[in-house]
Amino acid sequence: MESASPDPKNESAMPPSVGHMISPTDPDNPQNWPAQKKIYASAVATAFAFAVAFGITSLTVGVQGVMMQFNVSMTKAILGLSLNLFGISFAPIITPHLSERFGRSPVYFVSLPIFALFILGAGYSKNIGSLAVCRFFAGLFGGPCLVLIEGTFADVWSAHMTVTYYSFLSLASYIGAGCAPIILGYVVPAESWRWTQFVTLMIAFAAYLLGIGVPETYPREILRARARRLGHEIKLAKAESGVTLAEMARTTLFTPLAMAVTEPVVIMITFYLCLNFAVLFQWFIAVPAVLNLTYDFSLHQAGLAFIAAVVGALFSTFTSSLIERFTNRMNGCTNMATMAPLEYRLVPSIVGSLGLFASLFWIGFTAKPTVNHFVPIIGTGVYVWSSMSILTALVSYIFDAYPAKGTLSALTLMASARILCAGALPLVIIQMIMGLQGKWAYSVFGFIAIALISVPLILFQFGARLRTRSRHSQPMMGNGKHMMGHHVDQEMQMGNNTGGPH
């Protein structure tokens, strides 16, 4: 690329781009955009992710309607939730390669409409088979929106505030999923289960309209677009996600599978997040069923119980951001040029892990007629606060734990594995509750959660040493507050403008 004055009026004389493919002083760098432009790009990404997350749990409000209309068991009716999640589990594998080649905006604007078409198909399904197929493909095509939001936020916000911005982007998924039963608890009793899909379609359409005009945020695509506009040839470093099919498969398929059995840091975090998400999504099946059987709640009343989950997610954003600000200040990191040692990103998960196990025993032993219904409902809010705090901290930690390619592989494994587990547990949770009774079913998860409290503690104490010994790491990985991390996201591609051909 050309190097000269950074004057934005002189497009042919933009500064050289290094590191994340674009110079920190480049006016086109999304991190140099005005605040309102950054907020708009973040809001669009949030709206797209919210729509897809709303769609995930929407059908849970209509499970009884699906059972009656198609004369199927509850397990088959719940397949609409599980298959949607199974479809989404492919997104971390394929989205990095799409984003690398086309940028983020085209993937957003192709993904969401196709998602909406399959949601429409699910709403008009004539049998359980067509409903299941449409829900799976809605997840497959909507999933990239849930992956890309991480990349968008990483593009526009500084690594100095990784925990903070990741907690905000997590709100899109957590609140999107939590709002579905709250809103649809009013709609479905007045209409039918099909409106769970029609309302999702309306939200997706609104998100799409909001996104019209959103700027591209991916640095590599910004440079490519600028070069095309100026009629210049551009050379970028080889994408870390790979160029050939073999390289792409190695980065987001084979290496993640290898890390699942060889990389201690990744193994511990993946296992913790699998438990976290499996229990998180079973609430959308268990809470309405338990509240109905125990307290004779209507569908509308059971939906309102998820307000506690939304409050828990909001509180997690507040506490995680507050903890990051405190740890940065404690380490003397008061500006964007410095960053606290990476292990300090784990602090919210250390705090959240205590709430996770406590909330499981809390809910399991208080969901009974002799205890006021607010007690277990508040317990679900505590679980969601803990769940999101743990997710925010552990994923933020992995963002800069390895060089770009290793981080991409680790994030792919962590994302796909936890989503698969999230889809599996709802299929059997009712049987577990009926067979073991609620208190012992959740005690099983509670005891596992107690053992997993050690994960963030071990990583805080020994994480730097473990990462340094990894074959996916490199000698320059630092722990000091002046060693900036790679700050890579789910589509991280590092390099500079003098590297190999695109």
Provide a quick synopsis of the model:
This protein is mainly alpha-helical. Helices cover 70% and strands 0% of the residues. It contains 19 helices and no strands.
Mean pLDDT across the residues is: 86
Show unreliable segments: 1-20, 475-502
N- to C-terminal distance: 13 Å
Strand content: under 5%
Q: What percent of the residues sit in helical stretches (DSSP H or I)?
A: over 70%
Using only CA atoms, what is the Rg? Answer: 23 Å
**Secondary-structure element string:** HHHHHHHHHHHHHHHHHHH
Class from helix and strand fractions: mainly alpha
Tell me, what's the shape? globular
How many DSSP helices? 19
Number of strands: 0
Largest sheet: none
List keywords for this structure.
globular, 502 residues, mainly alpha, 70% helix
